[in-house]
Design a protein that fits this description.
Number of strands: 8
Shape: elongated
Radius of gyration: 32 Å
Strand content: 15-25%
Distance between the termini: 125 Å
Order of helices and strands: HHHHHEEEEHEEHEEH
Strand order of the largest sheet: 4-3-2-1-5
Largest sheet: 5 strands, antiparallel
Length: 265
């Protein structure tokens, strides 16, 4: 075997360049993965909001891959200065064409700065309700109560009214109930308060029920209690069932709009 010929073959400038580029690409990719994993651990230990983790990691990874691409281009003898200048012009053109995308990215940073919600909070945004899954580079993702994943553009989130039901740790549960004019109001109020007797209902503020209005065919009553945020739906649905059961037991009629017609002969 002619080792001198083999050695001379691998010393050809083109092969040396290709070999160097491959080594740089492999090492660079491995370093980016290590940096990304290290960054993930640092973010998990930090006090930074979890919803921001994916956005930061995505941006860092993108920047690192761009730098790796420039290093590889330089290794191939390509004038990086020209590429950077061309990239600047291309970036300007792309930014004009992708204004909505850039607005979403800026919106993501605005959300991380203003901090209107945290990961796991139950919120209502732009008509959509759900638990915040994360804030991405372009979208905020919510998980609805029926386990659907809703992605809302960050620009829309920033400009929309945001209702956060979790930030205080408690929520008020409201019911608007109607009963017949023939039913004793005190009896109706007592029945409503009985319906919300539940260990999960907070004693302070105390449950509240009162006659709230007079309609064409029924009297309106308002019932309110305070619960921990995570107990909201369980208490709401359980009380709904108990209200109708207690009304039936006590002979309280739940009315509905109706019209009585009297004919005179």
């Amino acid at each position: 075997m002619n080792w001198d010929a083999i050695f001379a073959f691998f010393q050809q400038p083109l092969l040396v360049t290709v070999f160097k580029v491959v080594i740089i690409a492999v090492i660079g990719t491995l370093l980016i993965r290590v940096i990304n994993r290290t960054l993930k651990k640092i973010l998990e230990k930090s006090k930074l909001e979890k919803a921001a983790h994916s956005l930061i990691r995505t941006l860092v990874k993108t920047v690192l891959y761009i730098l790796l691409g420039l290093i590889l281009a330089s290794s191939l003898g390509i004038d990086v200065t020209g590429i950077v200048a061309l990239a600047s012009v291309a970036t300007l053109a792309i930014s004009l064409a992708l204004q909505n995308m850039l607005a979403n990215v800026i919106g993501g940073f605005t959300l991380l700065y203003t901090h209107p919600f945290s990961a796991g909070d139950y919120v209502e945004i732009a008509g959509q309700s759900g638990s915040v899954k994360d804030v991405g580079i372009a979208y905020t993702r919510l998980t609805t109560v029926d386990n659907k994943l809703v992605s809302i553009p960050n620009s829309a989130v920033v400009s929309a009214e945001i209702v956060n039901y979790s930030v205080t740790g408690t929520r008020r549960v409201d019911w608007n109930i109607t009963a017949s004019y023939d039913s004793d109001p005190d009896k109706v109020v007592a029945a409503l308060l009985e319906a919300v007797e539940d260990d999960r209902v907070l004693a302070d503020p105390a449950p509240f029920a009162t006659l709230s209005g007079y309609g064409d065919s029924a009297i309106s009553y308002t019932l309110r209690v305070w619960v921990k945020t995570e107990d909201y739906w369980d208490v709401y649905h359980k009380a709904n069932r108990k209200i109708i059961d207690i009304f039936r037991r006590d002979g309280i009629e739940m009315t509905y709009p109706h019209l009585n017609v009297h004919l005179d002969k």
